[in-house]
Amino acid sequence: MVDASVGGKLGVDFEGFKNHIGVFQEPLAVFIDAIYLETLEKQELRSGFAEIIKHNLIADSDAWQEMKKKGIADFDWVETIKHSIAIKADVTTQDPTEKGLRKILNFGHTLGHAVESYFLPIQGKKLLHGEAIAIGMIVESWLACERSYIKASELKEITNYILKIYGKVNISPDQVKAIVPLTLQDKKNESNVVLFSLLEKIGKANYNIEISENEMYDAMYYYISL
């Protein structure tokens, strides 16, 4: 409702990698009714909620300040969906084919997609998209803190809130060694350079930030040490 429904990007997984084939094609119309959320299992609802967290972190600091006081059961979904859609629609209208600004919507998705891709073929271990992106937002917030974009206290707030909603996925150091190289398949890369979208501050994101392999390993080790 708040992510794939907006902006006309259609992607499919291919050969074990996320969203490797796709097109930009706006639909004639999108109909959203929050009543359908009542049909979802808690895990699916929680998965979609990750994109709402992302939108607030990259574009609305006031909404983030309110969000971190609430649990997932405390939201008015109609108003929350409207707010989240408005953020994404504003970005995608300005940059419909992801030449620049739209890349900020990939916060949490570079390492997040790598985590998701790693677990895709493992029987019984598959993560839902939002569960993987939740991990991605934690580790990419760590990178933003390392670059002095956000404060250590803000990293702690983000980490604690996401862990409260999603819990922690057990990832071993050996799995990290397999996950990090998967970022080389990320669609934002240029000339084999892995480019990230990071928080510039709470409520604002930047993009095309080059991150080294060692930094990615350190970010993942931050997560597994929590």
Could you describe the 3D structure shown?
With 226 residues, the protein is mainly alpha-helical. The chain has a single domain, classed as Dehydroquinate synthase-like - alpha domain (Dehydroquinate synthase-like, alpha domain, Up-down Bundle), CATH 1.20.1090. It contains eight helices and six strands. The strands form three sheets. A two-stranded antiparallel sheet has the order 1-2. Strand 4 and strand 5 (204-205) form a beta hairpin. Helix 1 (42-59) packs across helix 3. The chain is globular, with a radius of gyration of 16 Å.
Query: How are the strands of the largest sheet arranged?
Result: 1-2
The third-level CATH topology is: Dehydroquinate synthase-like, alpha domain
| Largest sheet, strands/sense/barrel | 2 strands, antiparallel
Q: What does the radius of gyration come to?
A: 16 Å
* CATH H-level superfamily: Dehydroquinate synthase-like - alpha domain
Per the principal axes of the C-alpha atoms, what is the gross shape?
A: globular
Percent of residues in beta strands? 5-15%
Can you tell me the CATH class? Mainly Alpha
Domains (count): 1
* Distance N to C terminus: 31 Å
Task: State the gist of this model.
This protein has 226 residues and is mainly alpha-helical. It has helices spanning 42-59, 61-67, 77-94, 110-119, 129-146, 152-166, 173-179, 213-224, and strands at 9-14, 17-24, 195-196, 199-201, 204-205, 209-210.
SSE arrangement:
Blueprint: E1 9-14, E2 17-24, H1 42-59, H2 61-67, H3 77-94, H4 110-119, H5 129-146, H6 152-166, H7 173-179, E3 195-196, E4 199-201, E5 204-205, E6 209-210, H8 213-224
Antiparallel strand pairs: 1-2, 3-6, 4-5
